[in-house]
Structure to design on (28 residues):
């Protein structure tokens, strides 16, 4: 159960970071 939550959290963080990086790249 905890492992499952960890995977979801990791996926969300990865998606958020790639999104932020993309926006940073676009806006700069």
């Amino acid at each position: 159960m905890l492992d499952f939550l960890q995977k979801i959290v990791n996926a969300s963080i990865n998606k958020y970071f790639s999104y932020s990086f993309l926006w940073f790249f676009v806006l700069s």
The chain has a mean pLDDT of 94. The radius of gyration is 12 Å. Residues 15 and 21 are 10 Å apart (CA to CA).
